[in-house]
Amino acid sequence: MRDQNGTTAQTPALQGDHPGFDEARAAAAVIAEATGVAEHRIAVVLGSGWGGAAELIGETEHSVPLADVPGFHAPKVPGHNASIRSVKLADGTSALVFGSRTHFYESRDAQAVAHTVRTAAAAGAKTVILTNGCGGLNPEIAPGTPVVIADHINVTGATPLVGATFVDMTDLYSPRIRRIAKEIDPSLTEGVYVQFSGPQYETPAEVRMAKVLGGDLVGMSTALDAIAARHAGLEVFGISLVTNLGAGIQEEPLSHQEVVEAGQAAGPRIPALLADIIGRL
Question: What are the residue boundaries of the Nucleoside phosphorylase domain, all occurrences included (predicted)?
Fold first, then answer.
């Protein structure tokens, strides 16, 4: 459904009886009690290479260990932070910054993946920003380059939705926030993100398949998060950091260490970009 401005109207947060909603509300209650903040306006999920963004978004007023919040656990992936931060924004409102996410490959449980964004919605967020480190399919987009997600292709064979839950995905990745990002940095390009199940990296044949399907980026997160976020009533913005070229495009073997190093090499550009986008929301 579209509002009078022509943008897709979001459904109210966590409406209906859906698996995981009660646990998300319980998690949000623990966060509210631990932080003293009744409502967080924006949620940010930091993926590989994006950890430095938390310091630039605003002042961290409270930090809650992930393992202390129902439905969460300490991250199992190197380079991810084991906390949820309550950050004060310049306008006086608060953002909820997740230093890690649950990946589908950890348990093959799409409901576990969805718990982060559902908790964000239950905590009062209206917007969620999903970040990730990913493989690039275009040799002209060098590692260390941020790419705005315009759409995705989910090839995991899974969904966080259950039963006859029909949710429109036409404008899943907010055109409004994508315009803001381009106004801040006109050099930004957009791309289609393809989520594979992982944890193995894609084969050269799978990379070629992703390109044929219309993909520009490949990774192991974000699409399932975004589906759950739309269902939960959140406006979604996604941005990837290209950390390497896909298998068969670059000759060197792929490794997670390469992902972490690419994030570090990107320096202050990507966290500053994210902070500027949030400052305009």
Answer: 41-278
CA distance 278 to 262: 23
For position 242, which CATH number holds? 3.40.50.1580
The pLDDT score that the predictor gives to residue 50 is 83
Give, as one character, the DSSP assignment of residue 212: H
8 falls within a domain: no
Residue 122 lies in a domain: yes
Q: CA 277, CA 125: separation in Å to the nearest integer?
A: 16
Look up tokens 């290479």; give the residue.
49
**pLDDT value of position 134:** 92
Closest CA to 127 of 85, 150, 93: 93
pLDDT at 279: 94
As a whole number of angstroms, the distance between CA 79 and CA 121 comes to: 25
* Length of the chain, in residues: 281
- Containing domain of residue 255, as a range? 21-279
- What amino acid positions are annotated as catalytic residues? 202
Residue 69 lies in a domain: yes
pLDDT at 10: 55
Domain count, the chain: 1
Q: Which of 166, 95, 158 is nearest to 128 (CA)?
A: 95
Listed as ranges, residues in the chain with pLDDT below 50 are: 1-9
Which residue type does 2 have? Answer: R
List the end-to-end C-alpha distance of the chain, in Å, as a whole number: 22
Does residue 42 contact residue 126 with C-beta atoms inside 8 Å?
Answer: yes
Q: Closest Cα partner for 46 from 30, 60, 36, 32? A: 60
Q: Quote the crossing angle between the two packed helices 175-184 and 269-279, to the nearest 10°.
A: 120
| Residues ≥6 apart with Cβ < 8 Å to 5 | none
Examine residue 199 and say whether the peptide bond preceding it is cis (omega within 30 degrees of 0).
yes
